[in-house]
Design brief:
Helices cover about 40% and strands about 20% of the residues. By secondary structure, it is of the alpha/beta class.
Length: about 140
């Protein structure tokens, strides 16, 4: 079904819910799972030894180890990458480079609390520019 699944990971409940769905798909398909977390894009030109940037990288690594790794279970083919980037454009670039068969995104807003839609700029941009199918996972806090 899928060979390479790319997950756009924001460190929040909706994104974690989408990650869990991507993990299920990766297990069923025996697919490689690629997880990408975009750090604040304003750090793109920052020296990697800048104390503020070092602190952000450290927090990202701790969060991944504490919150994400336990969810992976026995899934072997998982990569995690995090860097300063425009999340939408970088996800599309990664999807093209892998090449990914599927991009998984979480919908970060509850349907009953908004009137226009469930996607923000990042989600809409990924839908418009993705080189492969995109799976939107609605957030369910129940």
């Amino acid at each position: 079904m899928f060979n390479r699944i790319l997950v756009a990971l924001k460190f929040g409940p909706a994104s974690l819910h989408a990650l869990k769905k991507a993990l299920e798909l990766a297990r069923v398909s025996d697919a490689d799972l690629h997880i990408f977390h975009a750090q604040d894009y304003t750090f793109q030109e920052t020296d990697e030894n800048d104390p503020e940037f070092v602190e952000i990288k450290k927090k990202t690594e701790i969060y991944y180890a504490d919150e994400i790794e336990p969810l992976l279970g026995s899934l072997a083919n998982v990569t995690f990458k995090s860097q300063p980037a425009d999340p939408a454009l970088h996800i599309c670039k990664l999807a093209h480079m892998l090449p990914a068969d599927l991009i998984v995104l979480g919908c970060h807003q509850l349907a009953e609390k908004i009137s226009m839609g469930r996607l923000d700029y990042v989600g809409v941009t990924i839908l418009e520019k993705a080189p492969c199918p995109v799976m939107l996972v609605p957030f369910n806090d129940r």
